[in-house]
Amino acid sequence: MFAVAVFLGVVGSYDTKPFGASDLPLSNNNTISDVGGSLVQYKTIIDIEDFAKRDTSIPVFWRIPQSEGQTIEWVLIHCIGLVAAGIGNGHSLLSALEIRGGGGVTNVDIESREQNSRDKHLRIIESGIVDVVYSPDIHVTSEIFSLSTPGVMFTIFKHPIERSIEVFHLLQKKDAVFAEMTIDDYARSVHAERNWMTRTLLGKWDSDLTSSDLENAKQILRRKCLIGLSDDIGAALMRFSSYFNWDIDDPTQSLCLRSKITEDIFYHKSYPLIKGSHTWESLKSLNEIDILLYEFAREEYNLQKESLSFD
Question: Could you read off the pLDDT of 241-258 as tens digits, one per residue?
Answer without folding.
Answer: 999 999 888 888 889 888
